[in-house]
């Protein structure tokens, strides 16, 4: 009898909690639909949550009566998946979801109309406020489904103190780079630390080598998955050069077993003179960089006699989206507009030691990033290895191939053939939608 | 049985059956159905492809066969080592060696640690710069050793040691319990007949322990085919083609590549493989039951 009474009480309390939770959720959705609340989901990674929370509070101050419910999670992808399926996604999000597939499945809001409206705090449209190269990567079948935010340039970082002490200088050509590596080796120091457990860190090196040698058209053929692009003689040559860098001992011994942080620790602790990395390096190593350590960076060198423009730079981007089924699409879009305003972009660069895909957002960047800003200013155009984003399986197989190439398990010819085979599989795969980026305006065909 | 009693029994069984149907039967059936679709797992857009996912997997996906090859390696090599070493230690401990209780606890200890923690521990052991293994080899050879144990060339071999280390204790305890049930009079009689320790082991222990060994082999086969966490953590969530196994490939396809339907098809094939391998093992290891 007593058990039955207790069980009934537990059931009543449980039902009340469930009702309350579903009631709260319902109320929240009504508030969002009425434009009084904006729900924002943020990937909680190296950039933390503090900046985004501050942006949310500043948005609330500027828009009285609107509440921004911003939450972060390192695995927000797991929480977003069921919400997409339930038809109740947040109003704006940044997550490592296959956003191109979502765009193809009509699950994202087309931002084109809003991109032509004025940007916050600028005498330009929202579209005009972005750097053109990064924005061009957000177009799917002629429509813009996401906006680029944080921007990283793939560069070679070097130890300024070590270079100064030995009288070394940043190289301008690949032969100069090889000579520099020999000098560094001669001084008993490993020339390049490498994040071998994540071999796709070598992809920007390979593609930069290739672009400098072969030019722009073959590079975009690789990105756009054109038939035979990986079999280009200059691609084989570039792969061979990458392997030679390993054979000649330019990469630190044991690097293929190092994670990104381990390799970068080797660099900041002076056991390697250089490290290939995006501009996130300073922020990523902030807490472990010894006091007084100075780092700087240079763009990948030119190939003498090559067809490619040596000012060109490879970049990677973070993307924010608004789901098509969001309860408050208007609020979600407006929050993104606020987030990518010049003021917030500059704040982000200052606080997070990185770059932003908004024009003029380089006012407060750290001195270590000044060469990266210069690279971006000089770059005739930028490119991003989009094929790894569009087709994750291809990106993974390229990484596997790079590891096998660098450890000498396969020859450069085999590497190129193998990647081309994977590309062919993707091309033939009817399940996978195909994407492409246009060659930047003014670039020779 | 009275009608009322039967009704009461059915009434009591209903909640359990209901839960089983909702939590097990429904997901299995819906998984089987979803494996027939091309679905990204994020949107409601699905396309019926019939057995297309299966024909693609078995006929046009070299990575699946590579992964299966790795599973077979991780199923056979550690199984052989674990069986041999666990049987040897169990025989030694059951023969009344001093400190048997201490050794039993020590060997069993890795079983109470989570697989992720074990993997992280071995991750440090294998570190090329400050790892225990390279340090030990350096001391033995009196020179700096920087073997990259987790690079594409070594990773499969390097996975054997942690699997053996963390599984050994369980099978040791299993065999030990089985050996303790064998009447000692058989060994006494064998000793009188002049049988040495090896002959006693081969002709008494192994035949009378056969059912336990069969069970151990089945557990190891299932474990070897379903292995995921060790590979996933050791490869930092990025298993390369040199370390990919079926379960990690399933995860990659379903969650990273947004091919949920295809990933579920891999899960169905994995289920069939586990079922078939278990049935074959039971058939091959079937012996006449010995009563004692």
Secondary structure topology:
The complex is a heterodimer of chains A (445) and B (292).
Chain A: H1 2-33, E1 37-43, H2 50-62, E2 67-73, H3 76-85, E3 92-94, H4 99-104, H5 112-115, H6 132-136, E4 139-140, E5 143-144, E6 146-153, E7 155-159, H7 160-166, H8 174-186, E8 190-192, H9 203-214, H10 216-223, H11 233-247, H12 260-268, E9 272-277, H13 281-284, E10 295-298, E11 313-321, H14 329-339, H15 342-352, E12 355-356, H16 370-378, E13 382-383, H17 386-390, H18 392-406, H19 412-428
Helix pairs in contact in A: 9-10, 9-11, 11-19, 18-19
Chain B: H1 3-34, E1 37-39, E2 46-48, H2 52-59, H3 62-94, H4 100-108, H5 115-125, H6 132-141, H7 155-180, H8 184-192, H9 197-208, H10 210-226, H11 229-234, H12 246-256, H13 260-284
Antiparallel strand pairs in B: 1-2
Helix pairs in contact in B: 3-7, 3-10, 4-7, 10-13, 12-13
Question: Could you explain how this protein is built, in words?
Answer:
The complex is a heterodimer of chains A (445) and B (292). Chain A has 445 residues and is an alpha/beta fold. Chain A folds into two domains: 177 residues, 3-Layer(aba) Sandwich (D-Maltodextrin-Binding Protein, domain 2), CATH 3.40.190; 207 residues, 3-Layer(aba) Sandwich (D-Maltodextrin-Binding Protein, domain 2). Chain A contains 19 helices and 13 strands. A four-stranded mixed sheet of chain A has the order 12-6-11-13. In chain A, strands 8-9-7-10 form a four-stranded mixed sheet. The radius of gyration of chain A is 24 Å and the shape is globular. The relative contact order of chain A is 0.16. Chain B has one domain: MetI-like (MetI-like fold, Orthogonal Bundle), CATH 1.10.3720.10. Chain B is mainly α and 292 residues long. At the A-B interface, helix 3 and helix 18 of A face helix 12 of B.
């Amino acid at each position: 009898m007593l058990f039955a009474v207790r069980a009934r009480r537990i059931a009543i309390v449980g039902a009340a909690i469930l009702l309350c939770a579903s009631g709260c959720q319902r109320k929240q959705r009504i508030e969002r639909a009425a434009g009084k609340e904006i729900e924002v989901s943020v990937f909680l990674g190296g950039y933390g949550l503090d900046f985004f929370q501050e942006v949310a509070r500043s948005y609330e101050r500027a828009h009285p009566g609107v509440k921004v419910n911003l939450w972060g999670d390192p695995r927000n992808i797991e929480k977003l998946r069921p919400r997409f399926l339930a038809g109740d996604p947040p109003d704006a999000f940044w997550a490592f979801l296959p956003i191109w597939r979502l765009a193809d499945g009509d699950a994202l809001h087309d931002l084109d109309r809003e991109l032509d409206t004025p940007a916050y705090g600028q005498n330009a449209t929202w579209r005009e406020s972005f750097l053109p190269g990064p924005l061009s990567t957000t177009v799917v079948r002629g429509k813009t489904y996401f906006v680029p935010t944080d921007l990283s340039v793939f560069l070679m970082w070097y130890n300024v103190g070590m270079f100064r002490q030995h009288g070394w200088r940043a190289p301008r050509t690949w032969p100069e780079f090889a000579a520099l590596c020999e000098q560094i080796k001669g001084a008993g120091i490993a020339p390049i630390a490498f994040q071998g457990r994540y071999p796709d860190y070598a992809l920007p090196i390979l593609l930069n080598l290739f672009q400098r040698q072969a030019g722009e058209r073959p590079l975009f053929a690789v990105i756009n998955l054109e038939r035979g692009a990986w079999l280009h003689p200059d691609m084989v040559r570039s792969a061979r050069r990458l392997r030679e860098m390993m054979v000649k001992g330019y990469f630190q011994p044991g690097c293929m077993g190092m994670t990104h942080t381990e390799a970068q620790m080797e660099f900041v602790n002076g056991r390697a003179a250089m490290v290939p990395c995006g501009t996130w390096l300073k922020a990523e190593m902030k807490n472990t960089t010894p006091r007084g350590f100075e780092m700087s960076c240079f763009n990948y060198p030119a190939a003498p006699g090559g067809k490619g423009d040596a000012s060109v730079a490879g970049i990677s981007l973070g993307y924010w989206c608004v789901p098509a089924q969001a309860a408050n699409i208007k609020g979600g879009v407006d929050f993104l507009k606020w987030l990518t305003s010049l003021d917030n972009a500059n704040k982000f660069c200052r606080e997070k030691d990185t770059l932003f895909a908004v024009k003029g957002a380089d006012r407060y960047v750290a001195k270590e990033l000044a060469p990266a800003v210069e690279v971006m200013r000089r770059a005739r155009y930028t490119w991003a290895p989009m094929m790894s984003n569009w087709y994750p399986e291809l990106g993974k197989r390229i990484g596997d191939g790079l590891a096998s190439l660098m450890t000498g398990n396969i020859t450069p010819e085999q590497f190129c053939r193998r990647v081309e085979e994977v590309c062919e599989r993707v091309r033939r795969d009817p399940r996978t939608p195909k994407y492409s980026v246009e060659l930047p305006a003014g670039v020779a065909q | 049985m009275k009608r009322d009693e039967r009704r009461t029994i059915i009434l009591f069984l209903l909640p359990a059956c209901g839960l089983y149907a909702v939590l097990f039967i429904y997901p299995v059936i819906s998984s089987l159905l979803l494996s027939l679709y091309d679905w990204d797992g994020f949107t409601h857009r699905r396309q019926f492809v019939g057995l297309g996912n299966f024909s693609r997997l078995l006929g046009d996906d070299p990575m699946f066969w590579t992964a299966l090859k790795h599973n077979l390696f991780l199923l056979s090599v550690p199984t052989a080592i674990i069986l041999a070493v666990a049987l040897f230690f169990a025989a030694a401990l059951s023969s009344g060696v001093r400190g048997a209780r201490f050794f039993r606890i020590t060997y069993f200890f890795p079983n109470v640690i989570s697989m992720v923690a074990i993997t992280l521990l071995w991750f440090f052991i294998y570190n090329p710069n400050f790892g225990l293994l390279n340090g030990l080899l350096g001391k033995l050879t009196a020179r700096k050793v920087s073997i990259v144990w987790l690079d594409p060339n070594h990773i499969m071999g390097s996975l054997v040691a942690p699997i053996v280390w963390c599984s050994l204790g369980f099978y040791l305890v299993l065999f030990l319990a089985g050996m303790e049930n064998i009447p000692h009079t058989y060994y006494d009689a064998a000793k009188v007949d002049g049988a040495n320790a090896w002959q006693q082991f081969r002709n008494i222990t192994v035949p009378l322990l056969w059912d336990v060994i069969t069970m151990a082999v089945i557990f190891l086969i299932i474990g070897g085919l379903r292995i995921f966490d060790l590979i996933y953590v050791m490869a930092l969530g990025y298993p390369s083609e040199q370390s990919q196994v079926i379960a990690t490939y399933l995860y990659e396809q379903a969650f990273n590549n947004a091919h949920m339907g295809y990933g579920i098809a891999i899960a169905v094939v994995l289920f069939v493989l586990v079922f078939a391998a278990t049935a074959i093992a039971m058939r091959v290891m079937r012996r006449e039951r010995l009563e004692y």
